[in-house]
């Protein structure tokens, strides 16, 4: 990298910025920079402005905390979705994963993280209060918790479950067990053990 | 991706631009976009402007065709380098590879490609004429050809060799053979065969 900044500080600066991207080291960043250097100027301007426009204009939906280009997000404003069922997710990334399954037609609530005292994330840093307010308004029938099965995920789920107990709604969690297509031999003991303990009626 | 553009066209546009980067598919591009979305605005602005500044302000050195921030590149203006020896490379990328070895103290000439009729690259598309003009001026003692051992590389080397014959200079090529640390068993037949044919005196 020293040799690079000797040659061109402009290139070295661009490489340094590109190497901030997750999973990208100095070699890949140089490859990206040289690729961009070879592109027509208007393509590089479009590249830069798409990223800046995204960062400047995307906001969070005041209802569900999902990202949105409009005042209210496209899922909350979609009249064809069941607005009485809320799926609780950690992040937009998880929301997209669930959307991609095509199996869910309710609305969402994006927490923006999980409770983690070690990382300094307390309940007040997450959009838990707005979830409780949505439920308080009375139109919600079910909250499905789709959180990770980590210590943080379980802690968060339990904390939120206790907040939701006072209301007359169903609180559920996504099914846990051996994945479809998974080989029992290679399934971890915890998952396999729990999937036997929580066995369900055979329903062919 | 359809689900994504339903949710946020701004995000989808940024992901589309990021997926143009070499070796980056839709999944990695989404990861980059969400990472950038989470960064402070000033970091994203610095990211974008470093790339645009690089693309707008880097030019090619009129002497050696290397990329440069200044009118003449830092290698051509470096008085401590041997300006009578030119190392001929295909690209800036190859120049950096040679610089990183720390073994070379001459100057360079960047061709900007290799002759390839299949890809529509003819000698006139490369900076061959400016190389001949540098040699014509009379201060050059040696041209080292550091080109790939592909058909295009060999063709280009031969074409340039014939252009340089009229001048009283040494024309050399980088050594070819079995790499240091390479296992003979896994060396390709062509390299191994030629390294026997071109054997050199043992010089411990």
The helix count of chain A comes to: 8
Number of domains of chain A: 2
CATH topology of the largest domain in chain A: Dna Topoisomerase Vi A Subunit, Chain: A, domain 2
The ordered H/E elements of chain A are: HHHHEEEHEHEHEH
Task: Note down, in words, how this protein is organized.
Two copies of one chain form a homodimer. The first copy, chain A, is α/β, with parallel strands linked by helices. Chain A folds into two domains: 2-57, RecR Domain 1 (Helicase, Ruva Protein, domain 3, Orthogonal Bundle), CATH 1.10.8.420; 67-173, Dna Topoisomerase Vi A Subunit, Chain: A, domain 2 (3-Layer(aba) Sandwich). In chain A, 43% of the residues lie in helices and 12% in strands. A four-stranded parallel sheet of chain A has the order 4-3-5-6. A two-stranded antiparallel ribbon of chain A has the order 1-2. In chain A, helix 5 links the parallel strand 3 and strand 4. Chain A is globular. The relative contact order of chain A is 0.08. The mean pLDDT of chain A is 91.
Distinctive features:
homodimer, 204 residues, alpha/beta, Helicase, Ruva Protein, domain 3, Dna Topoisomerase Vi A Subunit, Chain: A, domain 2, two-stranded antiparallel sheet, 6 strands
List the helices and strands and how they pair.
Two copies of one chain form a homodimer.
Chain A: H1 2-7, H2 9-18, H3 26-38, H4 41-57, E1 59-60, E2 67-68, E3 82-89, H5 92-101, E4 106-110, H6 128-136, E5 142-145, H7 151-164, E6 170-173, H8 189-197
Parallel strand pairs in A: 3-4, 3-5, 5-6
Antiparallel strand pairs in A: 1-2
Helix pairs in contact in A: 2-3
């Amino acid at each position: 990298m020293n040799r690079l900044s000797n040659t061109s500080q402009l290139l070295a600066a661009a490489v340094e910025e590109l190497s901030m991207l997750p999973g990208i080291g100095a070699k890949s960043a140089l490859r990206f920079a040289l690729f961009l250097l070879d592109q027509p100027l208007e393509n590089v301007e479009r590249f830069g402005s798409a990223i800046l426009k995204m960062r400047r204009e995307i906001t969070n939906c005041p209802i569900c905390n999902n990202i949105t280009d409009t005042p209210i997000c496209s899922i909350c404003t979609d009249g064809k979705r069941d607005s009485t069922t809320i799926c609780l997710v950690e992040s937009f990334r998880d929301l997209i994963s669930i959307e991609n399954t095509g199996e869910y037609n309710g609305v969402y609530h994006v927490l923006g993280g999980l409770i983690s005292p070690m990382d300094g994330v307390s309940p007040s840093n997450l959009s838990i209060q707005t979830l409780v307010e949505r439920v308080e308004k009375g139109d919600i029938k079910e909250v499905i918790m789709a959180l990770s099965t980590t210590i943080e995920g379980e802690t968060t789920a339990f904390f939120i479950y206790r907040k939701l107990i006072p209301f007359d709604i169903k609180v559920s969690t996504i099914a846990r067990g051996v994945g479809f297509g998974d080989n029992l031999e290679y399934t971890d003991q915890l998952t396999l053990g729990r999937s036997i303990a929580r066995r369900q009626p055979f329903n062919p």
